[in-house]
Amino acid sequence: MGSPRTVRAVANACGTNPVALAISCHRVIGKDGSIAGYKWGMMRKETLLDTERKGIGKN
Length: 59
Description:
Elements: H1 4-15, H2 42-54
């Protein structure tokens, strides 16, 4: 994103997001491509990302 303020704003929005699956904050990853923190836990974030990678639930 190029701006520390922007990164903080996105992180804050993700942390306060009450509808995490409708607004996919779990897709936010670290600048280096690593999986970063998630309000509902890293295990859930990794599961959501794996599910999307595998295409589970797509028609």
